[in-house]
Amino acid sequence: AADSQAPVSSGETPVLTVYDEFKILDKKTGEILVVPDQEFVYGAVVTEMLPSFETEALKAQAVAAYTHFCKLRAEERAEPSDDLKGADFAADVSGWEYYVSKSQMQDRWGDQFDAYYQKVQEAVDAVYGEVLEYDGELIVSAYHAISGGNTEAAEDIFGGALDYLVPVPS
Fold first, then answer.
1. What is the 3-state secondary structure of the chain?
2. Which residues in the chain show pLDDT less than 50?
């Protein structure tokens, strides 16, 4: 098994560090939740998409979300913020922000839980561990549910240019 702090790449600046859990500061309770990566991705996908969406869309969301939160985690662990109290990021878990637990899914989906959870689990498992990189680094994996016809340039949104985030018709 890999050391939970061991870099995957051997260059001076690690591209992706192997961790096996996310630490989430629950904004409402102040508690830090420790969630295994794969379980986290199940709970992250459903905060952004309905489980009734197409399987390929769920897979794409899983990769985008995992990339996004791996990047946040790596940045936070490299330069910890006192505000996060050792967590990788903060979320309103009860409000379905960024992550929800399996029991929250059961409560919301009721009789449809088994079918929905199985679909999400199969989609995530099919792509689990895949991340998006550009020039060997995790990307800013920005995504949206609704488009006004074109995406924006990174510098217009994030204040700095990124070669892979340019305006395109959508």
1. CCCCCCECCCCCCCCCECCCEEEEEECCCCCEEEEEHHHHHHHHHHHHCCCCCCHHHHHHHHHHHHHHHHHHHHHHHHCCCHHHCCCCEEECHHHCCCCCCHHHHHHHHHHHHHHHHHHHHHHHHHHCCCCCEECCEECCCCCCCCCCCECCCHHHHHCCCCCCCCCCEC
2. 1-16
